[in-house]
C-alpha cells in the first residue's frame, strides 16, 4: 500500500474509540474539569469581595455608627471590633461601657443553674418504681440533700441496696427528725457521716460494719451492734465561738462517743472547742484491742494530759500520736490526777506535734515515761501536722525547728528526772 499522505489522514473517518481511546480522552478532560472548578471558585471569591465592597453599613460615618453601638449592649458593641478594621476602633469612642457578669457567663452556666434548680425542686416523696436497678450498687455518696428529703428515703438506702458496701452522707439536712437504721442484712462495711445537721441518726444494727467515721454529726449508737468494727474516726466540736453566747458544760461522758468498743484497733479522735466539754474520767471506758491512737487538734488552751484516760483504757496500745493545735486563749482548767497505780506493758512510741514545753505538756510526757514498761521512742516536735491517709489512717509530717540551747537543755532535764518503768533506755527526740 502506498504511504499515507497528510491529506488522506485528514479525510479519514474517525474510528470508534476503543478502551485505550476512552482512557486517553478521560485523562485529557481532567485538567479541563479542574480548571472549570477553579474558575467557579474564583468567581465566588470575586462575588464575596464585591459584596464586602458594597457593605453599606460600614460606609456610614463614625457618628452614625457610634449611635448604633450606643443602642446595643456592651458585649455586642465590643464584639463588632472583630468585623473589620473599619469597626476596630469604634468601641473605644463610646461614652460608657456597662459590664455585667451575666453578659460574660456562657450559656452552659445558665443551663447548669437550670438543671440544679430542677433537682432542688424534685419531688422526693415520689416512690421509685424500678428498685431493682439498685441491687448491684456497691458504693454511694449523697451530698447536699435539702431538708425536704424525707427520712424514709435515707432509711431505705440500707434495705434497697443489698450489695452496698460503702456509704458516705455529707452535708445532708435531716429536718429535725430521727433517722433510725436497723438493717440486719446490710453488707455495708464503710460508713461516713459528715456535717449532717438538724437531726439525729440512730444506728441500731449494721452487722458487717468495719470502718465508721462520724464528723460533726449527732449519732447515737451502741458499738456492741457492730461486731466487726475495727476502725473509728470521731470528730466533734462544741463551743467553738469565742464570744460564748452560752456556757458549754464540761460534764459530757465520753462513753456517749467511745463506749463499748471491744474490737477497735485504730482510733482517731478530734475533740475541740474553747472549753473542754467532757469529763476527763470514765469508769467503764475500755479499748481492749486498740493498737494505734491519734488524738488530733487538741487546743493548746486545754490540759493536754487528758488523753491519760485513753491510755489507762487501752492496755494493748502500741503507738500514741498527739497533735496540739495553737489556740488564742491562755492555758487553764488543769486536771487533778491521782498518782498512777499501773504500768503499761505495750506502749512503744509517743509522738507529740505542737510541743512547746509547757508545764502540763512536760507532765504528760513524764507520766507516759513512768508507766510504760516497753517504751522505746519519745518524739517531741514543735512544728508539724497530721496528713490524712483516707478517713482511718494518717502520717505525721514534721517541720524543722531550732530550739535555743538553754530551752532544750531545760526541757530534757525535766524529762530525765522522771523514773521510767522501762527496762531499756528511752530515746527522746526534741526538734
UniProtKB/TrEMBL annotation:
Signal peptide: none annotated. Residues 1-14, 27-39 have a biased composition (Basic residues). Transmembrane segments: none annotated. Residues 1-39 are annotated as: Disordered. SUPFAM superfamilies: F-box domain, RNI-like. This is F-box domain-containing protein. It comes from Urochloa decumbens.
Amino acid at each position: 500500500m502506498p504511504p499515507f499522505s497528510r491529506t488522506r489522514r485528514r479525510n479519514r473517518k474517525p474510528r470508534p474509540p476503543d478502551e485505550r481511546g476512552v482512557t486517553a480522552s478521560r485523562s485529557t478532560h481532567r485538567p479541563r474539569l479542574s480548571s472549570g472548578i477553579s474558575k467557579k471558585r474564583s468567581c465566588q471569591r470575586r462575588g464575596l469581595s464585591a459584596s464586602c465592597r458594597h457593605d453599606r453599613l460600614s460606609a456610614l460615618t463614625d457618628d452614625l455608627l457610634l449611635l448604633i453601638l450606643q443602642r446595643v449592649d456592651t458585649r455586642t458593641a465590643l464584639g463588632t471590633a472583630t468585623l473589620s478594621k473599619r469597626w476596630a476602633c469604634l468601641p473605644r469612642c463610646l461614652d460608657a461601657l456597662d459590664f455585667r457578669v451575666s453578659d460574660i457567663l456562657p450559656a452552659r452556666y445558665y443551663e447548669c443553674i437550670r438543671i440544679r434548680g430542677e433537682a432542688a425542686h424534685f419531688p422526693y416523696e415520689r416512690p421509685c418504681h424500678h428498685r431493682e436497678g439498685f441491687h448491684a450498687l456497691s458504693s454511694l455518696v449523697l451530698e447536699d440533700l435539702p431538708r425536704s428529703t424525707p427520712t424514709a428515703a435515707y432509711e431505705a438506702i440500707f434495705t434497697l441496696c443489698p450489695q452496698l458496701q460503702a456509704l458516705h452522707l455529707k452535708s445532708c439536712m435531716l429536718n429535725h427528725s430521727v433517722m433510725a437504721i436497723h438493717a440486719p442484712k446490710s453488707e455495708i462495711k464503710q460508713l461516713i457521716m459528715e456535717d449532717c445537721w438538724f437531726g439525729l441518726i440512730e444506728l441500731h444494727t449494721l452487722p458487717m460494719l468495719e470502718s465508721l467515721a462520724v464528723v460533726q454529726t449527732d449519732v447515737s449508737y451502741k458499738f456492741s451492734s457492730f461486731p466487726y468494727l475495727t476502725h473509728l474516726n470521731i470528730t466533734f466540736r462544741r463551743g467553738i465561738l469565742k464570744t460564748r453566747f452560752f456556757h458549754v458544760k464540761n460534764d459530757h461522758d465520753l462513753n456517749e462517743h467511745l463506749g463499748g468498743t471491744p474490737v477497735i484497733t485504730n482510733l482517731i479522735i478530734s475533740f475541740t472547742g474553747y472549753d473542754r466539754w467532757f469529763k476527763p474520767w470514765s469508769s467503764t471506758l475500755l479499748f481492749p484491742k486498740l493498737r494505734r491512737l491519734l488524738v488530733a487538734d487538741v487546743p493548746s488552751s486545754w490540759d493536754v494530759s487528758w488523753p491519760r484516760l485513753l491510755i489507762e483504757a487501752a492496755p494493748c496500745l502500741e503507738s500514741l500520736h498527739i497533735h496540739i493545735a495553737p489556740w488564742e486563749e491562755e492555758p487553764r482548767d488543769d486536771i487533778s490526777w491521782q498518782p498512777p497505780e499501773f504500768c503499761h506493758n505495750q506502749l512503744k512510741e509517743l509522738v507529740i506535734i505542737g510541743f512547746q514545753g509547757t508545764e502540763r505538756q512536760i507532765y504528760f510526757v513524764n507520766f507516759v515515761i513512768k508507766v510504760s514498761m516497753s517504751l522505746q521512742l519519745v518524739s517531741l516536735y514543735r512544728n508539724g501536722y497530721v496528713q490524712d491517709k483516707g478517713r482511718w489512717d494518717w502520717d505525721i509530717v514534721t517541720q524543722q525547728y531550732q530550739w535555743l540551747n538553754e530551752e532544750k537543755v531545760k526541757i530534757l532535764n525535766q524529762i530525765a528526772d522522771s523514773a521510767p518503768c522501762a527496762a531499756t533506755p528511752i530515746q527522746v527526740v526534741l526538734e
